[in-house]
Design goal:
Blueprint: H1 6-15, H2 33-39, H3 50-64, E1 69-71, H4 77-81, E2 86-87, E3 96-97, H5 123-137, E4 143-148, H6 150-158, H7 160-169, H8 171-195, E5 199-203, H9 214-231, E6 235-239, H10 248-251, E7 258-260, H11 267-274, E8 279-284, H12 286-291, H13 295-307, E9 312-315, H14 325-338
Parallel strand pairs: 1-4, 4-5, 5-6, 6-7, 7-8, 8-9
Antiparallel strand pairs: 2-3
Helix pairs in contact: 2-3, 3-5, 5-8, 6-7, 6-8, 8-9, 13-14
């Protein structure tokens, strides 16, 4: 096969089409302290300044060799725009939610998503950042933009323990709040595509079987994901943390292009269940390998993922800010050696 661009390689991989070699990217966050020091774009400022955010994102492509540029670095953008208060964090700590505006024993009326929603909070920062990145990197390198998913949004608007209780006592309210989150994601994601993003990463850690019974996932979350997939105007990768083996058969039916998995989910098993209907992204361990391991361990784990048939080689979750660059680079080295 003749040489193709990084963007074409990633899109082909997500479509299950022919590639010259598997892409190596990060679907999840890429900001590390080492990259911040190299490009002089540090947290928390890089969460709020489009130029700094773009510099740090591009650094992961230039310094590590990841074949995509990924923004932003947290799961608070939509939640802030929907009324949550956010702590800015610091150089090695991401922003976090500090308030839950709808937390109550009984469901509260949801404020309608306003016509000027895309001007709320840091949404304009992300949209401007994507445009700056495209101007800098050109058209041949893909941009991945991510956000918190509808389950995670609903759980943080309420507070996660309240949300979990409602799966037993207030299922209609769970559907209502989760659909509300989905509507916000759809509007935001399509704005990201319009700004220049090529792939949308839907990060929904609270949808994990660790928190939600697979039966409830099938009955409540899956139909919402299916509605979203019909309305999102680009390629979508969904990421759910933990061992998601119990919901793989449901994720197969979402209509999304790919599922990003952690090392807790066996990649071969996922491939077997998906039957080429949806692609697999992953799954080099972030905490035990990329953060705490060695380049050799990262290299070996990357080769294992490639042998098991990953469609896109990627960290299993977001990079820990103190992850050594040598470990991250070992992923690219392993992929390159694998396809010599």
């Amino acid at each position: 096969m003749c040489k193709i661009t990084m963007k074409k390689r990633l899109i082909n991989a997500l479509l299950g089409e022919e590639v010259d070699k598997m892409p190596v990217v990060s679907i999840t966050q890429t900001g590390t302290e080492a990259l911040m020091d190299i490009c002089d774009a540090k947290w928390p400022e890089a969460h709020y300044d489009p130029k700094l955010m773009a510099k740090l994102a591009i650094a992961a492509h230039k310094e590590i060799g990841y074949e995509a540029v990924r923004v932003p670095y947290c799961l608070t953008i939509l939640l802030e725009a929907l009324g949550c208060q956010v702590s800015k964090g610091h150089k090695t700590r991401q922003p976090s939610i500090t308030s839950h505006p709808y937390n109550s024993r009984e469901p509260l009326p949801l404020k309608p998503i306003s016509n000027d929603f895309l001007s709320k909070g840091r949404i304009p920062v992300i949209l401007k950042t994507i445009k700056l990145i495209r101007e800098e990197i050109g058209e041949d390198i893909p941009i991945i933009a991510g956000s918190e998913g509808p389950v995670t949004i609903a759980s943080d608007l309420l507070e996660v323990t309240t949300y979990m209780k409602w799966f037993i006592k207030q299922k209609q309210a769970v559907v209502k709040y989760t659909n509300y989150g989905a509507n916000a994601v759809i509007e935001y994601a399509n704005a990201l595509f319009e700004a220049g993003a090529d792939v949308f990463a839907l990060l929904d850690p609270v949808a994990s079987p660790d928190l939600i019974n697979p039966r409830d996932f099938n009955e409540i979350v899956l139909p919402i994901y299916q509605r979203m997939s019909k309305k999102l105007k680009g390629k979508v990768v969904v990421h759910i943390c933990g061992d998601i083996t119990g919901i793989l058969s449901y994720l197969k039916e979402t209509g999304f292009d790919a599922v990003s998995i952690e090392e807790k989910t066996d990649l071969e098993k996922a491939k077997e269940i998906f039957e080429s209907k949806i692609r697999v992204v992953g799954n080099v361990a972030t905490a035990t390998t990329l953060f705490n391991g060695t380049p050799k361990q990262t290299y070996d784990e990357s080769i294992i993922a490639l042998n098991k048939g990953t469609d896109v080689l990627a960290p299993g979750c977001g990079l820990a800010p103190l992850s050594p660059l040598e470990n991250c680079k070992a992923m690219v080295e392993a992929r390159d050696d694998y396809f010599k």
